[in-house]
Design brief:
Largest sheet: 5 strands, parallel
CATH architecture: 3-Layer(aba) Sandwich
Distance between the termini: 27 Å
Shape: globular
Structural class: alpha/beta
CATH topology: Rossmann fold
CATH class: Alpha Beta
Number of domains: 1
Order of helices and strands: EHEHEHEHHE
Number of strands: 5
Strand order of the largest sheet: 3-2-1-4-5
CATH superfamily: HUPs
Helix content: 40-55%
Strand content: 15-25%
Radius of gyration: 15 Å
């Protein structure tokens, strides 16, 4: 395995997932990339910002969160960063294919019941549609 793609969100579990992916990648002597996804489909404003301005603000915040994570976890290790917009599972699979990742690393919140039905599971959708192996990190 030469290319490991780590999918992270901007939540509190991103550090755990990035650390696990980094350790795995170092052990495999692989190239590593991070992908974060901003889903702008459900963004609404209160009139203070246009939808385009809100989207750009969220993307800039996500980009900064991603760079802070890279500095904290990866230090001087060279890591590529992708910031996509759209449905998370589709964007992750697109980057994995285009970057030619050998394996995906991602977390799962382990939601069940109503929360799972309402929010779905990005990890589950990636598992269902991926042609690549996936290393799932439980984040509970």
């Amino acid at each position: 395995m030469k290319r490991i793609l780590i999918a992270v969100d901007n939540g509190p579990t991103a550090e755990k997932v990035a650390t696990a992916g980094y350790e795995f990648g170092k052990a495999m002597q692989a190239e590593i990339a991070l992908v974060s996804v901003v889903d702008t489909a459900f963004m609404a404003t209160d009139g203070g910002l246009t939808p385009a301005e809100l989207t750009e603000l969220v993307k800039n915040n996500s980009r900064e969160d991603q760079q802070q994570l890279i500095r904290k976890i990866f230090g001087d290790f060279k890591v590529q960063a992708f910031l996509e917009d759209g449905k998370a599972f589709e964007a992750i699979l697109k980057v994995a294919k285009e970057w030619k990742a050998d394996i995906l690393v991602m977390g799962t919140h382990g939601r069940t019941g109503i929360a799972h039905a309402l929010m779905g599971s990005v990890a589950e959708k990636v598992l269902q549609h991926s042609e690549k192996p996936i290393y799932i990190i439980p984040t509970k």
